[in-house]
Amino acid sequence: MAATPSVETAARGAKSSATLEFLKSGPKKLLIGGKWVAAKSGKTFETLNPANEEVLALVAEGDKEDVDEAVKAARKAFEEGKWPRMNPHERTRLLLKIADLIEKNAEQLAELETLDNGKTIFESKNIDVPITAEVFRYYAGWATKIYGETNPSTPDVFNFTLREPVGVCGQIIPWNFPLLMASWKIAPALACGNTVVLKPAEQTPLTALRLGEILLEAGLPEGVVNVVTGFGPTAGGALVTHPDVDKIAFTGSTEVGKAIQRESVGNLKRISLELGGKSPNIIFPDADVNMAVFGSMMGIFLNQGQVCCAGSRIFVQESMYDQFTDSLSQMAQGLTLGDPFDPNVRMGPLVSKEQHERVLGYLSAGKSEGAKVKVGGDRGPQERGYYVKPTVFTGVNNAMKIAREEIFGPVAAAIPFKDENDAVLQGNDTAYGLAAAVWTKDISRAIKVARSLKAGTVWINNYGMLDPITPFGGYKQSGFGRELGKYAIDLYTQIKSVYARL
Ligand code: ADP
Predict the structure, then answer these.
(1) Which of 308, 309, 406, 483 is catalytic?
(2) Are 337 and 392 in contact (CB under 8 A)?
(3) d(CA 132, CA 237)
(4) From CA 72, how far away is CA 122, in angstroms rounded?
(5) Which pLDDT tens digit goes with each residue over 123-176?
(6) With contact defined as beta carbons under 8 Å apart, do 275 and 475 qualify?
(7) In this structure, are residues 415 and 397 in contact, taking their beta carbons and an 8 Å threshold?
(8) One of 54, 69, 134, 274 is an active-site residue; which one?
(9) Helix (H) or strand (E) holding 58
(10) How far is the CA of 497 from the centre of ligand 1 (A)?
(11) Who has the most CB within 10 Å: 131, 353, 443, 469?
(12) pLDDT category, 5, cuts 50, 70, 90?
């Protein structure tokens, strides 16, 4: 019989004693009404370290009854609790305190993220955790800036609008940026005075649970944020169909997004969906080629390519196609694939066995469709863990499966184009519309192409810049609704018109 793996083995590489303590503190529970409780069924599931396939922790498997309890707690906190009625300055202070506590616990949060997701500690420390704190800080500022209007009605009427919270928000998040996605959802919802039931992805529940502890430590009243871990169709599905949930905010695959739109119709919940992408990254010969190569490399290989806005279709003008794909491939080959805790490693394993198999399936599909593996094209050499080599396919055309479907892995499809018009036509020839990029020194061309691309975000001479002040979301089948910036305030408020006869 195999010995039960120890936390030390599973969490090899983690340095902070706080990380090990968190993992060793027994099976992880659900946060409902300010208390940590086991699932009503008593069931748990394992969360694994994708770098060594060992069990990191057991986590409560929430289901319909638990979601019911969590929604009740969130409803009570919304109808009777002080959060929606709190002085907004106080709400600001509390959100700032959350940001401070995230920074205070940065090392532990980064380590838990790397252990659960497989992303490098370099990325967890420099991207996920600091931006999470920044998102809370940004929305802390909004709590005092959510205004209604006075309207120029007839003289015997005083007419004004109130911007009020939506109510109980069900928030379902993916595994690629677990903590960061929790912040995109929770921070604006809280700034507007809503209450929340958060359902983290089953592959990566740990940082959301640690965030739950931090929220309580900051003094968030009980029931304002509830965290129910569990699986998509059960725990997630129960939130989506729940008659007392006012809004669903979802980030994940387009397929599940469509199901959510169908299933949430019962009580006509408000929904916002941030879904998949197959983003075009267009490179013209007059670009700063070194910058374009580096930016394109980051655009597809950051987070092992498990990024909804990854630049997975790299369009290169014919005249420079060979030279550019040579340089990109060389750079890809230079990315060290391995233990995500090694500070020199720039690429860790994929999140799960399922994702590993999916991506390997796309590598086979690319080869059998006649695309050429310029670099990578295979699993990593590691004996354990879900590694895939950074891969560049050349000789791709936009009709191939690897150019049409979202792979969500470190796989670039490099596609040649003739001219500006062809680049835009091919770039837009996709069901998705989350993001796009264009590289050129010709500012008119850059702006014209940016205007023509059907995508919610367009980057010029960079790939992947994000700032909490600026909206993010999709065109076409990449979803609807805009997160971040002032637009998230629209998602989490509703407007009431008041007519007072004088
Ligand atoms: P991926 O395929 O990349 O794992 P998903 O879209 O399946 O992405 O998952 C994103 C989130 O949606 C996860 O939290 C998952 O548990 C949840 N989810 C999956 N299926 C459903 C569903 N039918 N209803 C509600 N939530 C779901």
Answers:
(1) 308
(2) no
(3) 26
(4) 40
(5) 999 999 999 999 999 999 999 999 999 999 999 999 999 999 999 999 999 999
(6) no
(7) yes
(8) 274
(9) strand 54-60
(10) 37
(11) 131
(12) low
How far apart are the C-alpha atoms of 322 and 498, rounded to whole Å? 64
Distance 444 CA to ligand 1 centre (A): 41
Planar angle of CA 405, 308, 487, nearest 5 degrees: 130
Residue 49: which of 25, 30, 23, 68 has the closest Cα?
23
Name which residue sits closest to atom 17 of ligand 1, judged by CA.
232
Closest by alpha carbon to 434, among 406, 462, 394? 406
Does the pLDDT value for residue 2 go beyond 70?
no
Which amino acid type is present at position 296?
S
Burial class (CB in 10 A: 0-12, 13-18, 19+), 358: middle
pLDDT level of residue 6 (50, 70, 90 thresholds): confident
Which residue's C-alpha comes closest to atom 20 of ligand 1?
232
Residue whose C-alpha is closest to residue 69's, from 100, 30, 101: 30
- Cα gap 147→149, rounded to integer Å: 7
- The SS3 call for residue 52 is coil
The strand ranges marked E within 166-259 are 168-172, 195-199, 225-227, 247-251
The string of pLDDT tens digits covering residues 310-328 is 999 999 999 999 999 999 9
Type and span of the H or E element at 283: strand 280-283
Residue with tokens 């299933």: 263
Q: Which DSSP helix (H) or strand (E) runs through 191?
A: helix 178-191
Residues 420-459 pLDDT 10s: 999 999 999 999 999 999 999 999 999 999 999 999 999 9
Closest to 284 (Cα-Cα) out of 313, 324, 316: 316
In order, the DSSP letters of 131-144 are HHHHHHHHHHHHTT
Cα 200 to ligand 1 centre (Å): 9
For domain 280-467, is the CATH number 1.25.40.180? Answer: no
The pLDDT tens digits of the residues spanning 332-381 come to 999 999 999 999 999 999 999 999 999 999 999 999 999 999 999 999 99
C-alpha distances out from residue 210 to 25, 30, 131, 184, 483, Å: 12, 11, 16, 16, 23
CATH C-level class of 3-275+480-497: alpha beta
Residue 400 sits at the vertex; the CA angle it makes with 394 and 402, to the nearest 5 degrees, is 70
Closest ligand 1 atom to residue 230 Cα is 16
Q: Are 456 and 462 in contact (CB under 8 A)?
A: no
- Residue indicated by tokens 């909206």: 471
Q: CB within 8 A of 330, min separation 6: which ones? A: 375
Distance (Å, rounded) from C-alpha 214 to C-alpha 208?
10
Tell me if residue 483 falls in helix, strand or coil: strand
Residue 269: closest CA among 201, 172, 351: 172
Chain-centre distance of CA 42, in angstroms? 29
Domain boundaries, the chain: 3-275+480-497, 280-467
Quick check: 288 pLDDT over 70?
A: yes
